[in-house]
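Why Ubiquitin carboxyl-terminal hydrolase 48? Reviewers of the renewal asked for a concrete example.
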Amino acid sequence: MAPRVQLEKAAWRWVESVRPEDIQREHIEIAYRICVPACKRGACRRNCKGNPNCLVGIGEHAWLGEIDENTFHNIDDPNSERRDKNTFVGLTNLGATCYVNTFLQVWFHNLELRRTLYLCQNARAEEHNMDSDYEPRSICEHLQYLFALLQNSNRRYIDPSGLVKALGLDTGQQQDAQEFSKLFLSLLEDTLSKQKNPNLHNVIQQQFCGQMSYVTVCNQCGRASPLPSRFYELELNIQGHKNLTECVTEFLKEEKLDGDNRYFCESCQSKQNAARRIKLHSLPRVLNLQLMRFVFDRQTGHKKKLNTFISFPEQLDMGPFLEEKGIKCVYELSAVLIHRGVSAYSGHYIAHVRDARTSDWYKFNDEEIEKMEGKKLQLGIEEDIAETVKSQTRKPKCSKGYHCSRNAYMLVYKCQREEDTDPMETNVEVPGFLGRLVDRDNRKFEEWCLEMADMRKQSVDKGKAKHEEVKELYELLPAEDEYEFVPLEWLKKWLDDSTVTKEIDNGNFLCSHGKLHPDKVGEAKRISVKAAELLFDKYGGGPRLDGKSSTLCEECVGQRCRVLRLKNQLAEDYKEVTNLVKCPPKSDEGYWAGKTSLRSWRQLALEQLEEDEEETKHSNGKTNGEGPEITATKENLDGDEEEMKTFNEDILCRHGGLSILESERRLVTEEVWSKLRVYFPKAPQFTQLQEPCQQCLRLEREGKENEALNRMMASEQKSSLLNLFQEKNRPTLTKWPQETDILYIVPLFFVDEWRRFIRRPTKTTPVSSVGNSLLLCPHRGFMFTFDSMLKGDHFSGLYHPSLLVSCCVVFPLHSIALLWPDEWEVISRHFLVDQPISICRISGATPNGSSVEYTTQPELCRDCREGFIFQQQRDMREYAQATVYVRKVIDDKRLKDAAPEMNVSGSEAEDEREEPVAKVDGERDPDFSQVGYKPPTPMASGGKSGIRRSTRHRKLRGEKALIVSANQTLKELKIQIMHAFSVAPFDQNLSIDGRCLTDDSATLGSLGVIPESVICLKVRTLPILDLCMPEEGFKGKDIF
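Here is what the prediction returned.
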C-alpha cells in the first residue's frame, strides 16, 4: 500500500479541477478514501493508517491459529516461588540492602549464634494467637523469627523488611557494610546481656571477641606500658600487600614514636622516643578479618576502592601471631563477603558461605542461592566484574588451598574444634513457639499458591472464550456496500488481551458539524454493518458513524477545497498585486492599506489560509462550531512593532477607527483591494474618503497640552528644590547642622521617583504624594531611635505585627532622605503628605554641662520596636535555605583588599561599579583570600552625597556560597565544605568573627551563623596520603 502522505495527496488531488460549489458525492467519497483497496494478509508488515479499509496488522495474528495457553495469563507459576529441596532460603533486596542480606546469611550459618538466639525469651511469640499475624517488635524478636523462617520456610526467599525497619535503615541508600557489622554485633551483645538466662550473656564475646594490648616501650628507661583492649574484628590494611599473612604482619608491626609524636614516659617524667606494637593474647572462635578496601583519598577529598588482589588460605594458622607461643590455633575459612564494583560509592554485595553440616559452599546473592560444585569455593565470576578497572594487574596464580580476590572485603574464619564434627553440635532445632509461627506462614504460602493456580485457570478459560469470539468476528470485519466506522485504537485494544475492552467511543472523530471529520479517516476503520452490530451490542458506545450522507461532512470537504485552491492561486495573485500596486488610484476611488501589511501580505495570506485549514481539521470532539484555538506563527515583521495577526491591523487605532498616522498607510486601487479581500474577508476596510479617528485626534491634542504642563511643573519644582535635585548641601545625622534644630524625613523612594520625573517630565508620571506611612508601625508610631539610625540599622525591613510571617514591608533604613525645614515647606505645598515625620534636637543644661537630646515626631512606638528587634533576632536563628559564604584563608599573610568575582549578574555588576573597589595587592592565588581582610565600613544614613552603597555581599576570590539551614549541624556543613573545597572535615578549622566553631553536633543557629555570614576556612596542612578512615557515619537511626 502507498505511504500515508501519498494517500493524503491522492484524496485531495481532484480540488485542482473542481470548485467548492461543484463538489459531488464521488468527490466526498474520494476525500474519505472509501474506494481505496483493502490490504491482504501478508502484504503489510504493519497496519496502513492512511487506509480505512486496511484491517491487517491490528493484532489479529495473535488470535488466528493455534495459541499456547500461557499467553492467556501473566501469572507466573507459583511453584517457582517454592524452596527447592536441600537448598537455603534467600532474602529480598529492598532497594539497597544487599549488604544487610550478606551479613544476615553469614550470622545465620553461625550455628552457635543461631542456637543462642532461639534460647532467648520471647513471651509475645509463645503466647501469640495463631488466628492473627505475628509482628515482632524488638530486634531480638525480629532476628529470631527471621532465622526460623530461613531454616524451615517453604518459600524460596523471604522479606526482611520488618528487621530493616526496626533498625531504622534507609532502604534506598547503601551504607558502609563494615560499620553495620560492628554496630549490629554491639547491639546484639547488649540485648543478650539483659536476658534472664546467664548462659546467654557472654555468647557474643565467646564467639567474636578476642584480647590484645597496645604495648609502649620507652627507649630511655625500657619501661613497658601495656594497654589491654578487646576486639571483635581485625582491620587489616591491604595497600602494598599481596597476601593475608603480610597484612596481619603489618598489623602487629612495631611503630616508632619520635619527633612530635614522642611518648610521655611516667618513669622518666618527660617525653621520650618509644616503640609501640600490638600483642595478641587470645583469639575468638569466629575470627572476622576486615580488609580495608575503602580508603579516603586526601588528594580528591573522596573515598576510593582499592582493587588490590589479596591471597588468603582456606586454613589459617594464627599460632605464630599469638604472644604466647606453642598454642595450636588453626582456623578454617567459613565465609567470604564480596563487593562487586569498581567504585566505593556503588556496587553490589554478595556472600560465599560454607555450610557447617555438609561443608558445601553456597553463593548468597539476595533472592538467588547457588550451590558450588565439588565442595569448593569459586570466586571467578566475582573477579570478572572488576575487570573494567583501568589496571594492567593480572590475577596472580594461587597455590592449592589458597584463593585470590580483588573484591573480598571481609573474611570469616572459624576455629577448628573436635566437637564441631559432633552431629549434636551441627543440628539446631527451631523452638516450638517459633515452629508454630513458621508453620502458619507456610500454610499462608500454600494458600497463596492455590489462589494463584486458580487465577491462572480462570485467565486461561477467559482467553479461550475470547479466542473463539475474535476468530468469528474478524472474518466479518471487511466492509461491504453498507458499512460503519470504528476507531482503530479500539480495535487494537479489543485484540489486545492484556487490556480491558471499553465501550466504543467515536466522539473524538466528529467535526464541528457533528459528522465524521475527513482528517480522522486514517485513525478509523471501515467495517461491515453486521460486524458493527455485534460489537456495539456487546460493548456499547457511540455515536454510530454509518456510510450515509449524514455521516460524511460535505461542509468540511468544501472548506478544505476552497483553502487548497487559494493556496495554489496565491503565487499568481502575488505577482499581479505587486504590479498593480504601483499604479495610483483614481480620485476618490482608492482604499487605505497599511504599508507593513502590503509588504508582508503574502505571508499573512499564507498564515490565514493555514489558519482556515486548521479550522477544518479535527476539533477534539467539539461541535456547534467550537473549533480549536488557533495561535498564529509568531514572527515580528518589524523589530519595534507587535506581531500582526491580520491584514490592515497596522492602521487600526485602539478605538477601531482609521489611524491618524498617515506615514503608515497608502492608497491602493479598487482592483488591488478586491483581490486582497479574497484572502482577508474580515480585514478592516477604509475608503479614501474615510476620516481618521476623532478620539485619537482629541487625545493627541490633550497629550501635547499635558506634556507642556509637566515641563512647566518640573521646571518650577526643580528651581524650588535645586539642592535636593543635585544632592548638594545635604544634612546628616553624624554631624548635626548648627543652623537648625529640626530636620524632616521622607522615603528615599519618593526622592528617586521625583528626580526621575524632573529629568524626563514628558516620559514619566508626576509624583503627587509622599508616602511616609511606610516608615511607621500600625499604631502610627515611628519605628527607629536616633541611635539606631546613626549606626545604620540595616535590618531587612520594618516590623508590622499584622505581618508576623513575612515579617515586614521591605524598606531598609538607609533608604531615607533628610530635608531642611525650608525644603519641607516646599514639599508640603507641592505634594500630598500622609504623615509628617521630623527629628528634633533639644539642647539643655545639666550640673555636668550641656546635654543634647533627640526626639522624633511621631514618637517612637516602643512595643513595635521591641517586637521588631525580637522578630529580626528570631529570623536570624530560624532560617531555611539561606546563603552563607565560606572563605579559604592562609596564616601570616594579609590582603589589603580583594577583588570581587566577575560572575555576577548585570544588575549586580552595575551596582558594584558605583562603589570604588581597591585593587589586589599581595597574593595572586585565585583559590585563596588572606586573613585580615576587612570589608569597607558602610556609611551611616545621610553620609557623603553622590555615592550609592551596594547592600549585596561582595563575593571574593577563593570564596564560595553554600545553601544552609539553621537546624543543620556543623558536621553537615563540614561535609558540604568538603565537596566544595575538597578538604576533609578533620582538616577544617572554621571560625566566624574570630570565634572558632568546634562542636560538630551543634546547629548553625545555636553557633550564631546567620544568613550572609562569612565563615573562614583554615586548612590543616598535612602531606597528601591515602589513609584508611572511618566512614561519614552509619545512617541507621536505631542501630546505635
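Residues 161 and 489 are 42 Å apart (CA to CA). This is the kind of structural detail the renewal will allow us to pursue systematically.
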